[in-house]
């Protein structure tokens, strides 16, 4: 449309290879050289209609295409700013790029989040640029004294729960216990050593954590006024995943250590800044990896201990799993050996159960149950204050002797004594009950749970399932609602189930209910529901839950895998039921399509938690629970009905909206599921739920329906590399519609993985062989550029009808790639297809003109021999010839100008434009040039006159055909 119009020259400056843009990019980089700033680029991903002339008028009805390719859209100053996370796709075409459907639109939220983050960082960065950086030697003891990047690095290591377990452990000073540790020979001898490993070991329930906390407090007290650093971490087997994993250990220890050692903080900040530059925001776009921090500790901590003594205390090592614990012990010994060999001062103390594989050497060990008998007497005696002194002395002695050093056993039995005494039970009966109580904790737990009444079995089992298998420990408010929700409940609203039998009126009543149902094995601790000890969880997972199932259902014992699967089944269904409740489905969420009032609704995430306590847990944990159900081999054929399929859109929309609201309230943007526009098929594909497909696939539905990210269910499965589900969908008829997906189709996947069998299966099933991924690449394009290249894969694609002329978003085709790489054998293979004729008439820069531009005479002659016609009229054709001529590639230019299937007038004009004057001078004499052509052809006189070559004009005028 712009050709021969004033805008034509301007549009050329916006081209992909424009010198103007290249110059501007260089100047922009120099003008905006702050390396601590960021440049984000947003680019279109949807195709726009193009202009085409119909009956002499231009209309936007041409073939759709991505108008601005990614390479042209992005404008980073450095290489890393031309890659994610600095480039972000917008799910719009060119004209709709900045026209969002509403505040709840995912792209709008993403752009807004990025802008807010940039604004927040900019304020800090601009300020920091004008501040003098402190010297490396200065001790940065407060946040205000610490540079922004270093403080951000330190905060990226921290996590909310890192001190939770240590804070929960009862301080021994409160009950006057653990003083014996101060005089224990192994502790006294270990403390002044330069290096060494100390073990605090004991049976489950012996009080190891209390002892460890006592030691940590004592070491810290003795370190005051010195330069010694004491850091600690308490594993928590009943806590969140990070509390029971090595990454939690490393992050917590480094967070404590680096705050005290500025040099180490500066070193890690370099890595932190690189990650931020490359990937974006810590905790959202990326997280610290276990291997990175492990390596940093190994290389830096032993060296740092040469300047300042370091003591590391780690509690409950066994609660991260035996295999992991074994690896951590080996790692700790290596750290100590490194420090010892280099003159460092590094000591480590572990507390752990008796795992022979962990402490086989002669490391000094403190066995808690051998030393704590007096402590047990003290604690039991203080708990039995209501008993008469004569009875109390006898019972304290009976309990203490039978406990054999197991604090947990003594405390539980003492609580039973208190309960019996409160009921007026005689002393002789209480004594007999103590004598009959099993010594082993697991037997004690079994005895307690055997007292559960038949009417309480179902509710008790539900409570244990939630406490055992919730993805994160539930808050008291969450458990309050979870106890009242059934997987098969008829209630349609929150009000209905709150009026039911199992909803506690307040947290105090909930605590009473939990204590009664669990027989004291579950408590609300610091606002969260937890087992009173790790040994309770161990017992339930080993056999307790199986016994409860057997007693409740009256059936044969279930396998542990089945018991776990049923727990996840009940929890996931309860969560889904919760999200379907009337109040949640109809609430006018702020920043969603249901309300235009920004002031309406939640002002913070706390407001949301208060209104719908289980909402956050449900939306982020349902996927995990249903995946665990599938892994347990339990069929999930109920999911379609549960999601009201095929009308599941409203439920999934609510789910997605809630997740977006939480992100908005937290001013962050994280990937979560479901993506806007998702359907049940996407859910099943995303989380590998094979067992629910049959019912859905038996009906006539759109198997290729895209979600808001443009992914079909098959594309979702391919992204997860779940070929089992991809094949299920393929067999059912998916993959036969044309659409653009970020990862492409199953054929793209087969090519990427060089899976010939899968490729043939996909082609036989009718998958579209020329489908394109987000970049516009077809499977054939991927096969051609693959290294190493598979001729078998290429042959199979060509035999299936793949078109080598399908262009990507940049206008490149497999043919162009082959020409650029001078692969004549492959070129001939690509041309021997049913698309050969259309390939010779390709639009844009043709393969022939690309060969000319490359100055490759062999390829030029081969393509001419294959019937390709030189393009001498288009801008790209003229540029290709000029570029080759400028580089002196006469051997590539002359075959084009002498080609028999071109208009001589065009060749004459082009020869003049590239200053091939001698060649042009010979053409009039041959009478090949028509000096007086039809209006649609090139006029030689115009070309000769504009060049200033008078003798050419004279020769043309002498031609008798000149009018």
From TrEMBL:
ANK repeat locations: 709-734, 843-875
SUPFAM superfamilies given in the database record: Ankyrin repeat (SSF48403), P-loop containing nucleoside triphosphate hydrolases (SSF52540)
Transmembrane spans: none
Stretches with biased composition (Basic and acidic residues): 925-940, 951-963
Pfam family, one: Ank_2
SMART domains: ANK
Claim: Plastid is one of the keywords in the record: no
Domain Nephrocystin 3-like N-terminal per the UniProt entry, residue ranges: 176-353
Keyword annotations from UniProtKB, A to Z: ANK repeat, Repeat
Gene3D superfamilies attached to this UniProt entry: Ankyrin repeat-containing domain, P-loop containing nucleotide triphosphate hydrolases
Region (Disordered): 925-963
InterPro entries: Ankyrin_rpt, Ankyrin_rpt-contain_sf, NPHP3-like_N, P-loop_NTPase
Record flagged with keyword Aminoacyl-tRNA synthetase: no
Protein name as annotated: Ankyrin repeat protein
Originating organism: Botryosphaeria dothidea
Lineage, highest ranks first: Eukaryota, Fungi, Dikarya, Ascomycota, Pezizomycotina
């Amino acid at each position: 449309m712009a050709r021969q119009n004033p805008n034509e020259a301007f549009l050329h400056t916006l081209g992909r290879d424009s010198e103007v843009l290249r110059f501007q990019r260089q100047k922009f980089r120099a003008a905006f050289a702050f390396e601590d700033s960021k440049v984000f680029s947003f680019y279109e991903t949807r195709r726009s209609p193009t202009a085409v002339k119909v009956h002499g008028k231009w209309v936007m009805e041409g073939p759709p295409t991505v108008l601005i390719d990614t390479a042209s859209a992005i404008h980073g100053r450095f290489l890393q700013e031309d890659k994610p996370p600095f480039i972000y796709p917008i799910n719009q075409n060119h004209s709709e790029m900045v026209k969002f459907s509403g505040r709840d639109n995912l792209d709008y939220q993403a752009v807004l989040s990025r802008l807010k983050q940039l604004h927040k960082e900019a304020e800090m960065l601009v300020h920091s640029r004008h501040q003098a950086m402190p010297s490396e030697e200065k001790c940065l003891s407060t946040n205000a004294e610490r540079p922004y990047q270093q403080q951000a690095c330190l905060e990226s290591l921290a996590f909310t729960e890192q001190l939770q377990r240590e804070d929960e452990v009862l301080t021994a000073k409160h009950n006057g216990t653990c003083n014996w540790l101060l005089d224990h020979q192994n502790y006294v001898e270990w403390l002044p050593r330069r290096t060494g490993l100390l073990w605090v070991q004991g049976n489950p329930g012996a009080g190891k954590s209390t002892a460890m906390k006592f030691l940590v407090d004592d070491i810290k007290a003795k370190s005051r006024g010195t330069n010694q650093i004491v850091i600690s971490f308490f594993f928590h087997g009943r806590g969140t995943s990070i509390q029971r994993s090595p990454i939690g250990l490393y992050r917590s220890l480094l967070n404590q250590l680096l705050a005290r050692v500025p040099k180490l903080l500066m070193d890690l900040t370099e890595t932190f800044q690189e990650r931020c530059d490359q990937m974006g925001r810590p905790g959202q776009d990326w997280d610290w990896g276990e291997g990175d921090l492990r390596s940093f500790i190994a290389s830096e901590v032993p060296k740092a201990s040469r300047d300042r003594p370091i003591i590391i205390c780690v509690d409950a090592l066994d609660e991260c799993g035996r295999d992991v614990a074994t690896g951590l012990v080996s790692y700790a010994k290596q750290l100590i050996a490194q420090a010892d060999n280099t003159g460092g001062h590094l000591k480590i103390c572990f507390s752990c159960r008796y795992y022979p594989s962990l402490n086989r050497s002669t490391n000094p060990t403190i066995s808690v149950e051998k030393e704590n008998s007096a402590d047990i007497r003290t604690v039991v005696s203080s708990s039995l204050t209501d008993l008469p002194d004569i009875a109390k002395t006898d019972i304290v002695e009976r309990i203490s002797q039978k406990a054999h050093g197991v604090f947990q056993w003594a405390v539980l039995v003492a609580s039973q004594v208190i309960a019996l005494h409160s009921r007026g039970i005689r002393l002789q009966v209480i004594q007999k009950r103590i004598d009959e109580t099993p010594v082993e904790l697991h037997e004690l737990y079994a005895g307690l749970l055997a007292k559960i009444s038949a009417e309480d079995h179902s509710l008790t089992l539900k409570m244990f399932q939630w406490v055992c298998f919730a993805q994160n420990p539930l808050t008291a408010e969450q458990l309050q609602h979870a106890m009242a929700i059934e997987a098969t409940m008829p209630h349609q609203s929150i009000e209905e189930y709150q009026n039911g039998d199992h909803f506690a009126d307040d947290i105090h009543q909930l605590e009473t209910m939990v204590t009664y149902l669990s027989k004291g094995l579950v408590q609300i601790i610091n606002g969260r529901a937890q087992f009173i000890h790790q040994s309770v969880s161990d017992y339930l997972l080993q056999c307790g839950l199986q016994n409860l199932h057997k007693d409740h259902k009256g059936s044969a014992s279930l396998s542990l895998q089945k018991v776990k699967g049923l727990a996840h089944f009940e929890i996931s269904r309860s969560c889904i039921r919760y999200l379907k409740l009337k109040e949640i489905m109809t609430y006018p969420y702020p920043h969603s399509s249901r309300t235009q009032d920004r002031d309406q609704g939640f002002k913070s995430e706390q407001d949301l938690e208060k209104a719908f306590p289980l909402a956050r847990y449900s939306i982020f944990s349902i996927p995990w629970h249903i995946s665990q159900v599938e892994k347990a081999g339990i069929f999930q054929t109920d999911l379609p009905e549960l999601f009201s399929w095929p009308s599941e859109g409203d439920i999934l929309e609510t789910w997605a909206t809630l997740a977006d609201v939480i992100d908005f309230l937290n001013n962050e943007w994280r990937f979560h599921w479901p993506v806007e526009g998702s359907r049940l098929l996407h859910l099943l594909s995303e989380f590998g739920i094979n067992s629910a497909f049959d019912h859905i696939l038996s009906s006539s539905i759109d198997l290729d329906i895209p979600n808001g990210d443009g992914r079909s269910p098959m594309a979702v499965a391919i992204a997860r590399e779940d070929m089992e589900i991809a094949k299920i969908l393929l067999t059912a008829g998916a993959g036969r519609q044309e659409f653009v997906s970020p990862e492409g189709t199953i054929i793209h996947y087969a090519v990427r993985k060089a899976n010939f069998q899968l490729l043939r299966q996909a082609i036989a099933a009718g998958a579209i062989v020329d489908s394109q991924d987000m970049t516009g690449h077809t499977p054939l394009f991927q096969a051609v550029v693959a290294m190493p290249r598979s001729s078998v894969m290429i042959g199979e694609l060509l035999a299936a009808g793949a078109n080598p002329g399908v262009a990507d978003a940049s206008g490149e085709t497999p043919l162009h790639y082959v020409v650029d790489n001078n692969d004549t054998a492959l070129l001939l293979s690509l041309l021997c297809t049913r698309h050969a004729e259309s390939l010779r008439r390709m639009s844009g820069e043709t393969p022939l003109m690309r060969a000319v531009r490359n100055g490759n005479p062999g390829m030029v002659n081969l393509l001419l021999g294959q019937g390709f016609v030189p393009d001498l009229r288009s801008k790209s054709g003229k540029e290709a010839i000029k570029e080759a001529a400028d580089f002196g590639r006469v051997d590539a230019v002359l075959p084009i100008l002498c080609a028999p299937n071109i208009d001589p007038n065009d060749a004459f004009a082009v020869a003049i434009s590239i200053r091939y004057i001698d060649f042009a001078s010979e053409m009039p004499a041959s009478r090949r040039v028509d000096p007086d052509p039809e209006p649609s052809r090139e006029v030689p006189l115009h070309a000769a006159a504009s060049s200033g070559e008078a003798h050419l004009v004279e020769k043309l005028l002498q031609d008798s055909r000149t009018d």
